[in-house]
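Person: Please work through this fold.
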Amino acid sequence: MKITVISGSIVGSKTKTAMSKVVQMLENKYSEHEVTLLDLADYKVEFSDGRNFFEYEGDTKYVAETIMGADAIIIGTPVFQASIPGTLKNIFDLLPVNAFRDKVVSMLVTAGTPKHYLMVEQQLKPILAYMKAQIVQTYVFIEEKDFYRKEITNDDVLFRMERLVEDTVVLTETYRSIREAKEAKYDF
């Protein structure tokens, strides 16, 4: 199974810290799976101009093809101006409308205040549903107070992150089994 972990911002450290922890959890518990961290701060991604994702070159092509090749995606995003950052929105714009069909997508959000928790429900989940994702319904919301010196210090947050990782893997395996059983019914 290929799991792509996206740190969806080019600024700040909290989302990257959280997504690095997610990668560590995946590698510790599910070492048999291929895990790729896409920290958008490490790539020069072009703005979407309407081309097919495979027509881009360089970092843009690598990021888009890595996402398209994944079986599961864990998206980490900060909340900027009560919304997702433009860098993450650009990634969605680069991909086709059915980019997440047969993929399980889960979410982790970092924010300075609990007042922005509905951003996931009102913005991110509808985008993922439109792009045909199988969405892990629960997500992890991490506040400013849960970090200290680029470390997550809240044990409850760490427990919820472990559960998100587990739910993502189990749901991906479950959907794969269902698809394989359905395909086995056809003899061509």
